[in-house]
Design a protein that fits this description.
alpha/beta; Rossmann fold; electron transport; LUD_dom; metal-binding; 4Fe4S_Fe_S_CS; repeat
């Protein structure tokens, strides 16, 4: 199973299939609706606590400012982060792409002679398919987040940034636990029910032996503080704390965009993230670590700073704002397209509105083959309603980036054999630019619309109007410019 799993059908094809799954749509509507309601309550709470001002909007502006400032000075911040991490006893590695990052982590695991590692939930390790790279070397990577565990045991693919198993209901989860846990460790109890607390207890018992046995832990990071050489992970279950403290060796793979300059700048981000993601005032667990502390926690710490297309995105003047993303998933939870299709239709570990811009920005548009077609389809996976921008805690203007990426997709395919849509628009431009040609073409509008229904590029998703019985020109001539017969001239 590939971490990015790009190569699935183009978004329209995958979305059409997802729309036919009634259970999926029910699961998504219930889950996203619940999260939206919780988030809205806490946003209003912030507004009410600062009388006379829009407290939430001020917080959004502060968060966006912190991230934007770090991106504009990214080169200096990363050098400073390396210096402070090294001073704290960590070993810093730089990785240009997924292959380099995977090789670094695999080499560390092999050097310590382990055949398994435990993992904190991490989008970036899914992005590079670290689990697949470890498996190819005979090393099992155990996901310890509950939702990630469900996905892994079900041999499934994540479909949400925050809740990877959002497409599953609790009855399905019970069946997965009963079937799969016994194959990779402690089995689920035979009398397992589908009560959430019972399912969580089964997962806890299953994972406990893995936590206590593992010598190597792997994590990502929500933030990296350049000033102090501190990495930060926020989570809700405590599994992250176990992975970060129990193993002898800790390897953290961190996207270079996660850096912020100072400890104080974490303040707005740590208030925005839990409210936007889980609808909580603060995360139950906020873990920070700065290198090695003798006698406490891992005694060997590695940090892999990953590019993997991020400098490409940074060079895009419109799209670079996507690197502000703090992976809260608020845009997914308000998106009418995501709610009806789910995450798998986007063909990446980054689904929803943010995935529709982040994947093309990281990889580039106009690439050949099935992967290129799939990436080029993502900027069109949106109605441009703007709900994602309103929800984004760091004010990423996703609709504007989508429109700009659509232009890039069109520009990338100029030349060669034109697409039917391009031919249709060129023909329309030529016809509309001449009154004589337009008058001639009006005679065949009925035929054109009927042909468009059969072969037009938009006919699969739009209803074309019926052709009028009489053109405007003909009506104008017949009525002498619209005047009634009895009207004075």
């Amino acid at each position: 199973m590939s971490g990015t799993f790009v190569g699935m059908p183009k978004f329209p094809v995958a979305a059409r299939e997802a729309l036919g799954d009634a259970q999926l749509r029910h699961n998504l509507a219930h889950a996203t609706g619940t999260i939206r309601a919780k988030r809205l309550r806490l946003v209003e709470e912030v507004n009410e606590s600062i009388e006379g001002t829009s407290g939430w909007e001020e917080l959004r502006l502060a968060g966006a400012g912190v991230k934007e400032s770090a991106l504009l000075t990214l080169d200096a911040q990363l050098v400073r982060l390396e210096e402070t991490l090294t001073a704290n006893g960590a070993t810093v590695h730089w990785a240009r792409d997924a292959a380099e990052a995977n090789r670094i982590v695999v080499d560390i695991a092999k050097r310590h002679g382990v055949d398994e590692v435990v993992k904190v939930k991490s989008m970036v390790t899914q992005e590079i398919d670290l689990n697949g790279a470890l498996a190819a070397e005979g090393i099992a990577a155990w996901e310890t987040d509950l939702a990630e565990l469900i996905v892994q045991l079900g041999d499934d693919l994540p479909s949400h940034i925050l809740v990877p198993a959002i497409h599953r209901n609790r009855a399905e989860i019970r069946e997965i636990f009963l079937r799969a846990m016994k194959e990779v460790g402690r089995p689920a109890p035979e009398d397992l029910t589908d009560e959430p607390a019972v399912l969580a207890a089964a997962a806890r018992a299953h994972l406990r032996e893995k936590f206590l046995r593992a010598k190597v832990g792997v994590s990502g990071a929500n933030f990296a503080v350049a000033e102090t050489g501190t990495l930060v992970v926020v989570e809700s279950e405590g599994n992250g704390r176990m992975c970060l403290t129990l193993p002898e060796v800790l390897v953290s793979v961190v996207g270079i965009e996660k850096v912020v300059s100072t400890w104080d700048e974490l303040d707005p981000l740590l208030r925005l993230l839990p409210r936007s993601s889980t609808g909580e005032r603060m995360n139950p667990y906020t873990s920070t670590w700065s290198g090695v502390t003798p006698g406490d926690g891992p005694q060997e710490v590695h940090v892999v700073l990953l590019d993997n297309g991020r400098t490409r995105a940074l060079a895009d003047k419109v799209g670079r704002q996507a690197l502000r993303c703090i992976r809260c998933s608020a845009c997914l939870n308000v998106c009418p397209v995501y709610e009806r299709t789910g995450g798998h239709a986007y063909g990446s570990v980054y689904p929803g509105p943010i995935g529709a811009i982040l994947n093309p920005l990281l990889k580039g548009v106009g690439r050949p083959g099935a992967e290129g077609e799939q990436l080029d389809s993502l900027p069109y996976a949106s109605s441009l309603c703007g709900a994602c921008f309103e929800a984004c805690p760091v004010r990423i203007d996703i609709p504007s980036v989508l429109v700009d990426l659509r232009a890039q997709v069109v520009d990338a395919h100029r030349g060669g054999v034109p697409k039917p849509e391009a031919v249709a628009f060129k023909g329309a431009a030529r016809t509309l630019s001449s009154s004589r040609r337009l008058a001639f073409g009006e005679r065949f509008s009925g035929v054109g619309l009927r042909v468009g229904r059969l072969f037009g590029p938009w006919s699969g998703a739009r209803d074309l109007p019926a052709a009028p019985q009489e053109s405007f020109r003909a009506w104008w001539r017949r009525t002498d410019g619209g005047r009634d017969e009895g009207e004075s001239r």
